[in-house]
Each structure stands twice: as C-alpha cells, then as structure tokens.
Write a sequence for this structure.
C-alpha cells in the first residue's frame, strides 16, 4: 500500500475449463449431432490488486476457484481472458526471457506437504536449486546459502541432507516456503499452505509467516478456506463465490461489518480451528454446479435476503467505501427502484 | 568427478542393501557378474578359440562332456559340437556376443524410449500425439515380427541387429515412461519446479526422470532379457549375427539339429547358459526396483 502502482494486478481474469473432446466428438459437433461443449467457468471477471508489502487473503468454499486463481497468479495456468499485470506490465505479452524473470518473482507454496517436495532429492538441493539455476547464489556459496535459507524458515541446517520422507508435515511445509523464498520473489502465493497440517503446526507456520511479514517488502496472497487463519494473517480479504469476487475489504472491516450476505453467513458460522468441521449450516443448499451457474446473482438461490432483481441481473461490483468493494444488490440503487 | 565417486559409492551401497535385503537376488547378482566377467574375458579364459580353424580339431566332433581332446591338450568339460569345437569356449564367446548386442540394444532403447515417453508426458498436445501414435503402430505388430522385417530388409549383422532390437523395444519404455511421468506431472513438486523457471532439460532429466525410473528399470531388465531372447531367436532363424560372430542363439540352433543324434549336451548347455543369463537379470532387476525406492532406505 506504499506505492500507487500495484505490484500485481489481475484485470478481468476469466478461466474456463473445457472438457477435452476427441476428434470424433468435435466432428460430430460440427455436423450438429454431438453433445454440446461443456464449459466449466472456474473464474469470471476477477479484478484484484496486490500492493507491495501487503498480504491479501482469498477465502471461499471448496470449488469456488481459489486454487485456480492462485495458479493463474503464478502463471502455472493461463487465463482464458484478461490480463495479469506484474509491476504494471502484462506477463502474457512479454518476450520469453523477460516473462521468465517476471514469473520467477512470483512463487507459490503448495497445499499438500506430501507432494510438494521431490521425493528423490535431498531437501537442501530442493531449496537452493532455483537460486543456483538463476545465478542468485554462486556454486561455492551453496552450503552457506542453503543453511541461511533454512534458518530463515526455522529449519535446522543439518536437515539439508535428509530426504523429504524423513521430515514431518510441518517441516516439509517449511521446506516449501524456503524453496519459494530462496529465489527472492516479489510475491508468494500460499495455496492452502496450512490446511493439511495439525492445528499446532498450523500455528507454528502462521507465526513463521507473521515473522516474515516483519520484512516490509514481503508480499503475499494467502488462499485459504479457514477464516480464522486469514483473519490472523491478511491485511485485506477477498471473498470468492463460484468464481466471482463478492466482497473485498480490509480484514478488520470485513470481520466487523461484512456486507454481502454470503460473507455474513461465512462469518456467522464462525469456524472452529478444526479444518475438518466445515459445514456452513446457515447457508442453505449446495454450491451450484459451475457447469451450469444460476442466472442473475449466483448466490441468489441460497441467499436469505434475495430479492426479485437478484434472479434477473448480476450485481456489478461497487464501492461501498474506500477499500470496501461488494457485489450485491442490497442497498444499491437498483434494488431500491425494484422495491 | 566428485559426483562420479558419489555415484559409485551409491552403487556399492545398493549392492550392500541387496545383500542384506534379498540374499537370493544377491546370489543372482554374483552369478550375473561372474557370467558377464567370464564372457568379457572369453579370449583369456576359454580353452580354445572355437572360431579359429587352426585350433579346432575336426576329429574331436561330438565328444561327450568330460572327454579329452585327441592330442590331450584340452579337456572338453561341456563336450564338443558337430564341428569339434569346445562347447564351453563356444558358450563363452556366444555369451559375449549376445550380451553385447542385447545390452547395447536395451540401453539405447531405454534412453530413446524414456526420453520419448517423458517428453510426451511433459509437453502433451501434438508432441504426445505423434509419439504415442508411433508407439501404438509399433505395438500393433509382434516384436519378433518387427525385428524379422528389419533384419530381412537390412540383412544379418551386428549393427543391424542392434538397430532392429532398439526399434522393436523402444515403445515399451516410452509407454512406461509416459504413464509414470503423467502421474508425476500431477504432483505439486513439478509445479513448484516449473515456478522456479528451471530449464526444460532440467525439469525432465533432474525432476521427472528419477521419479519415473523404478518402473523403467523393471522394464529395462525384462527387456534386456527379452532382447537376449529375441537375439537368440533371430540367430536361431538365421537372421541374427553372421556365422563368424557366434551367439547363443546360433549355438542353440546348431544344438537343436543334433538332439536326435543323441548329442543332447550341444542343446542343453547353450540353452542353460541363456536361461541363467535371463533369469538372473530378471531377479536382480526386480529386487533393484524395491531397493531404489527411497522410502525403503534406512
């Protein structure tokens, strides 16, 4: 929030997944006899800015597109439409060498501590590999650099020669964080980075992240389904529902005065610090199928405050206040007219 | 250089682990090593060069095992064949040819097939389609038929045989490598490696390959044994190596003509040599697969 140009900006990002059809399906469709194309809209029209030094939390139910969004940010997936601007420049259009440098500055910490490390590499090699490959560390300084990177995330440097299977889940997650930080990224995306850990280990990792944040330039996007975790770690929170942003607000503001009925429902069912208990009893029904999303506001079939207009028109995202954006017809002009 | 030493030490560690984990496989490994060493040192340890007409005495033909040559110089411990050659020497020379051909072919096929399989899993799309359709086309024909066709076109000979075996065998490696690599590509560590913007070469060779290696190693041992068998079959059929480069298959072919004459040792001993070779390779390969899994290391 220190500079005006966001470090990272997503503009109107959409991502569809199309079922892969073989040659004959496509032929049949061309002859108007086959099944129609099925599009899964994972994300539509996402706008999001991440400023240097802040942590943005992204919250939503399973299947709402959180992970897809994270993978688009680090360019593991290309958006179907829209732009990802890094320091004001579109990554997709850059020349390859420049794009590689930009992508290197965007790192990710993954969800599953059992799959995130190459099982056949010693963890020291895993951590320092990226920095070595890009010449950030010279070959003769490798050991010191590895030790420093491990100390930074609270790992004993003498673990460097272990294989991942000899480490606990929390240690592996630390290795994953050390690997991402070793290439000196501008922004780190944490994709459910603590979801698979025990509560006590979660707390350790979160404290580690809080310590990292004391370094003012540390920027991150923190994806989670756990509101308590997000509340603890983020400056701003983005709430996603079925691939769309429904509310963006500074953390404190959101937790005090959520506006969108979905946010309210999420917060009302104050989650325990047990990631397995995730039943939102106050929200009726299931998440609709993203293959066939409801018309109008996508939340209207489950919304306790749904009005007529919600079934017809999708609410545009509007500014309630400085930094507080919401996509809901409640209290906006259109709803008043309809009423 | 240091990495070479480290790898040698690692291989010694593997042998030690094989000894403690599976004594049977360790015995097979020893037998295989002895067989390989003996075939490599054939010119030094064989009692005669069976393909040197000066040394071979035609009047010693069809002597049973344990006979002594007419001039008393050699004891034919495995007997002699219809031309009076020492069968023991012929088997050593034959093993040498068979091992060289099948080993060379299996290694080349492993390299080519694995790279093809890994790239198709890594790049997907058009690359994958081209490679995997080529594999399907090849696998539509029986291996021995493909090898036969190639040998029939290019003629018998050492080099042609290797090429034929490689062409016949690479698709097995490609399929195995692809299926293993597809699983690994879905793992988060591959995404993490891609995030680190490592070169493609490194992604495939350093990250993907080692994790796909165990099934490839098993296929390698099976295919090595299979290559030895195909080589023997082709030589048996007269399409393998030329007469001056004896192989086990050729010896078995010659021995089979003699079986009705009561000279059964001329078939049994070369056959036994082939069985020992193939059997020990298979056992060693299978145990190696288990040991190579880092989760089972201590």
């Amino acid at each position: 929030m220190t500079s005006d140009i966001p470090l990272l900006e997503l503009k109107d990002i959409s991502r569809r997944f199309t079922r892969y059809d073989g040659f004959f399906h496509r032929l049949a469709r061309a002859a108007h006899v086959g099944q129609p194309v099925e599009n899964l809209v994972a994300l539509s029209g996402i706008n999001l800015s991440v400023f240097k030094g802040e942590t943005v939390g992204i919250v939503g139910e399973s299947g709402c597109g959180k992970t897809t969004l994270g993978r688009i940010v680090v360019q593991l997936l290309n958006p179907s439409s829209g732009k990802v601007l890094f320091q004001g420049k579109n990554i997709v259009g850059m020349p390859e060498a420049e794009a590689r440098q930009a992508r290197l500055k965007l790192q990710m910490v993954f969800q599953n501590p059992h799959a995130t490390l190459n099982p056949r590499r010693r963890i020291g090699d895993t951590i320092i590999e990226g920095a070595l490959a890009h010449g950030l560390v010279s070959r003769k300084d490798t050991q010191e650099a590895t030790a420093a990177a491990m100390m930074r995330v609270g790992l004993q440097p003498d673990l460097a020669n272990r294989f991942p299977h000899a480490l606990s889940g929390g240690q592996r997650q630390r290795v994953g964080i050390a690997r991402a930080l070793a290439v000196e990224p501008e922004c780190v995306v944490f994709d459910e980075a603590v979801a698979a850990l025990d509560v006590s280990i979660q707390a350790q990792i979160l404290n580690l992240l809080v310590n990292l944040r004391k370094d003012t330039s540390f920027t991150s996007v923190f994806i989670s389904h756990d509101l308590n975790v997000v509340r603890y770690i983020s400056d701003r929170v983005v709430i996603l529902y079925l691939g769309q942003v429904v509310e963006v607000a500074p953390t404190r503001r959101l937790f005090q005065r959520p506006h969108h009925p979905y946010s309210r429902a999420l917060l009302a069912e104050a989650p325990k610090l047990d990631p397995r208990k995730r039943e939102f009893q106050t929200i009726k029904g299931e998440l609709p199928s993203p293959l066939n999303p409801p018309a109008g506001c996508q939340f209207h079939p489950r919304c306790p405050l749904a009005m007529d207009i919600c079934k017809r028109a999708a609410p545009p995202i509007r500014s309630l206040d400085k930094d507080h954006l919401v996509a809901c017809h409640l209290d906006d002009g259109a709803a008043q007219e309809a009423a | 250089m240091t990495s070479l030493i480290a790898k040698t030490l690692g291989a010694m560690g593997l042998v030690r682990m094989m000894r403690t984990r599976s004594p049977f496989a360790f015995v097979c490994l020893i037998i295989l090593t002895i067989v390989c060493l003996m075939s490599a040192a054939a010119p030094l340890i064989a009692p005669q060069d069976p393909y040197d007409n000066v040394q071979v005495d035609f009047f010693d033909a069809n002597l049973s095992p344990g006979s002594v040559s007419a001039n008393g110089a050699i004891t034919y411990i495995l007997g002699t064949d219809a031309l009076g050659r020492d069968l023991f020497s012929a088997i050593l020379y034959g093993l040498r040819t068979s091992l060289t051909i099948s080993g060379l072919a299996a290694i080349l096929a492993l390299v080519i097939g694995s790279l093809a399989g890994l790239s198709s899993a890594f790049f997907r799309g058009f690359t994958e389609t081209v490679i995997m359709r080529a594999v399907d086309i090849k696998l539509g024909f029986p291996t021995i038929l493909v090898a036969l066709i190639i040998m029939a076109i290019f003629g018998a000979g050492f080099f042609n045989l290797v090429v034929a075996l490689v062409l016949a065998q690479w698709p097995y490696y490609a399929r195995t490598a692809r299926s293993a690599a597809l699983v690994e590509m879905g793992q988060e560590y591959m995404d993490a490696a891609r995030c680190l913007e490592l070169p493609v070469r490194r992604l495939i060779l350093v990250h993907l390959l080692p994790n796909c290696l165990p099934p490839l190693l098993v296929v390698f041992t099976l295919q090595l044994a299979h290559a030895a068998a195909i080589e023997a079959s082709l030589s048996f059929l007269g399409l393998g190596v030329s007469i001056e480069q004896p192989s086990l298959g050729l010896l078995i072919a010659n021995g089979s003509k003699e079986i009705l004459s009561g000279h059964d040792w001329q078939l049994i001993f070369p056959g036994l040599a082939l069985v020992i070779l193939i059997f020990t390779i298979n056992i060693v390969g299978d145990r190696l697969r288990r040991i190579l899994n880092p989760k089972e290391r201590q």
The radius of gyration of chain B is 22 Å.
